[in-house]
Every structure is written in structure tokens, then in C-alpha cells.
Amino acid sequence: MNRISLLQRPRRNRQSAAIRDMVRETVLTAQDFILPLFIIDGENKSEAIASMPGISRLSPDLIVSACKDAHAAGIPAVALFPCLGDSKKDPLATEGSNPDGLFQDTIKRIKDAVPEIAIVSDVAMDPYSSDGHDGLVRDGEILNDPTLEILAAIAISQAEAGADIIAPSDMMDGRIAYIRDVLDESGFEKVAILAYSAKYASSFYGPFRDALDSAPKEGDKKTYQMDPANLREAIREVELDIAEGADMVMIKPALPYLDVVKTISDFSTVPVAAYNVSGEYAMIKAAGQLGWLDAEQAAMESVLSIKRAGADIILTYFAMELADKL
Ligand code: PBG
């Protein structure tokens, strides 16, 4: 064969591990992660979640241990979600602002035991609502403005318990400004807001709703969560949330929406988070269990892709296993 003269040989930069390490553009670290945790009542109680292999609902004492482990692994924050029985749910999500509720109590216990870890607390009505919706339901309609008052009460009780970052996940209009105002009025001007700004009406939340038993009793979430078809609308939501005072914004889910992550991270003036949700986790775990792919490598590659797309912060159920390997 004749000698081929090529000026450009991109493979030169891939020829050894040393060179690949040198030219790598995106490096994942444990500091990029927020670890989501599911809380149940009790003591020394751990309930496996069938649709999320490796993830369990934990009683507050075990949540504290999980926070210690996460901190030791270099993970800076945890995102908490309560799992409540039907007896604690009502149409007004009253339990959400109970100062002695399971959620608030767990926040206090984490703050006492592991003050270094940042606590992200989810604000929405669904874990506490007998309707299973993120807002107040009247005649089948999800009401916007009356919901804001309830969300603000939930946020205040979480801030009082010691939450560092309030994360409204409900997609009601105007909630960031409303919650910011009420937090400041109550002396919580140091408590940050991570806005679930572009949260899509996604089938990938299925395992999470199993984990919390929080699926809507009637209807779906399409009048408040976003249409998966829309990108421009995500820009509008993010711009509004930044204008309303959000300290960080979030796109959710992550993998099917990497174009949204990329678009938002190109213009956002605040840090951008992406939520690698329960369904994204379940798919990889399930394929791994069937022997159809290497789940560990697929997890690493997926989460790396979310960072490459521009996310500064990644909420992921893989956080602990990946942190151990990084
Ligand atoms: C609810 C909430 C959901 C998730 C986080 N907060 C589900 C929903 O909107 O029904 C999903 C997280 C996941 O799937 O991992 N406010």
C-alpha cells in the first residue's frame, strides 16, 4: 500500500491512557453530585424499592448514616423526600408544614449529626396530598395562586428545621418570587432557592412515584409540568425563575433532555442542575440485571454526559456508587 500522508490524525490524542487523561474535556467528581434520599418513619428501618434496585426508603437514623457516608465520599449535598402513609395526607397537604413532621425532624437530625452536608428540601404538595398532585385541587383543576400560600408554609417550616436550599418542584407560576419574599420576611434571607424550572411531564418519574406512593389519584400533571416537545418554553421558565430570585435552576429529567440542559447552561447566569431521575436509573439497573449491558459503565457514561451537556450539579441515585469509583 502506498504511503498515505495525513496532516490530521485525531487518533494520536487517543493512543494511550496517559494522553487520553491529558486531553479529557469533562471530568466528573463527587462534588458534582446531590444524593436524593427517601425518608420513612421508624427506627433502623430500610425498605427496598422494587423499581429502583439498590435504593431504599430509610428511617431518620439511617438517613443520618447515609448523610455521613455521603459526606465522607465527598458529596456536598442530599435532596430529601418524605414517604408518608395515607393517614398523614389530606387535600391541603397540612403535614407538609408540621414543624414536628417526619421531614422537619429528619432535617434537624441531619443538621445535628452532619452539619457540613447541605440539605436540599423539596417543596411541593404531592407527598402530603391525598390528591397526589403538586397543587391544590378543586373540581379537577389544579389551582395556582392558592397553592402558593401552602408551598410557602412548607418552605418556611423546612427553613426553620434547618434546610439550606429550598427546591420548589411543583411548577406553579410565580412560586419562586412568592417563596423568596416569605423566606426573607421570616428572616431566612440566607436560605437559597433551587428552582425546578424546566420540569417536564415525564413518564420517567414512574419509579419515584412508586417509592413515595405519590402518583396523582386522578388525571395527570400536564397542566403544570411541561410538554416534552418544548424547548423555547424551558427558556421562558428559566428566565422567569432567575428574575424571581432563583439561586440555581434545574432541568428534569436529564438524559432525554440534554439539549435543554445545553441550551440553558449556555445562557444561565446562575448554576444549572439536572435531575437524573428514577426512570433513568431504573432502566440502566434493569438492563444490567438482565446482563444486557455493564450497568456501572453505563451509569458513569450517562452521568458524565449530563455534565458534558453543561450541568454544574447533578442529582442522581448513582451518586454513592459513582463517588466510590471516582
Ligand atoms: C414531585 C417530584 C417528583 C420527582 C421529584 N419531585 C415526581 C413528580 O413530579 O411526580 C421525581 C424524581 C424522580 O423521578 O427521580 N414534586
Summarize this structure as a short list of keywords or feature phrases.
binds ligand PBG, TIM Barrel, alpha/beta, 326 residues, 37% helix, 12 strands, single chain
Describe this structure as you would to a colleague.
- By secondary structure, the chain is an alpha/beta fold.
- The chain has one domain: TIM Barrel, CATH 3.20.20.70.
- The chain is 37% helix and 17% strand.
- It has 11 helices and 12 strands.
- Strands 1-4-5-8-9-10-11-12 form an 8-stranded parallel barrel, surrounded by 9 helices.
- Helix 3 (102-113) links the parallel strand 4 (77-82) and strand 5 (118-123).
- The N and C termini lie far apart (44 Å).
- The mean pLDDT is 97.
- Bound molecules: ligand PBG.
- Residues 122, 124, 126, 134, 169, 205, 208-209, 277-278 line the site of ligand PBG.
Number of structurally distinct domains: 1
Q: What distance separates the N and C termini?
A: 44 Å
Write down how many β-strands occur, each being a DSSP E stretch of 2 or more residues.
12
Walk across the major sheet and give the strand order: 1-4-5-8-9-10-11-12
Report strand %.
Answer: 15-25%
| Contiguous uncertain segments of 5+ residues | none
Based on Cα principal axes, name the global outline: globular
* Bound molecule kinds, no repeats: ligand PBG
State the fourth-level CATH superfamily. Answer: Aldolase class I
